[in-house]
Amino acid sequence: MQRAILNIVKKWKISWKPEYRTFRCARCQKNIRKAWHVWLKYGRFKTEVHFCGKCFKKTAPQTRGG
Ligand SMILES: [Zn+2]
Q: What whole-number distance in Å separates Cα of residue 61 and Cα of residue 63?
């Protein structure tokens, strides 16, 4: 599951500037008001990833309720 998310994150152009914007699903880029927040950690890099309900189920079904 971390691997799947990592592949998504790698596609982003990561900016370290602060950003004020709406949530977007990491997978389908849909604007979402409520999101699943998933922490992704690799090496010393840690980031929060947001998913809509649909994509969360597809990407990380085994983490539900945990
Ligand atoms: Zn989505």
A: 6
Q: Does residue 13 sit within a domain?
A: no
Cut 0.70: pTM above it: no
For residue 66, report the distance from its CA to the centre of ligand 1, in Å: 20
Three-state DSSP state, 38: strand
| Each residue's pLDDT tens digit, 23-34 | 889 899 998 888
* Structural domains in the chain (count): 1
Which residues keep their CB under 5 angstroms from ion ligand 1?
A: 25, 27-28, 52, 55
In a domain, 2, yes or no: no
Q: Ligand 1: distance of its center to the CA of 18 in Å?
A: 23
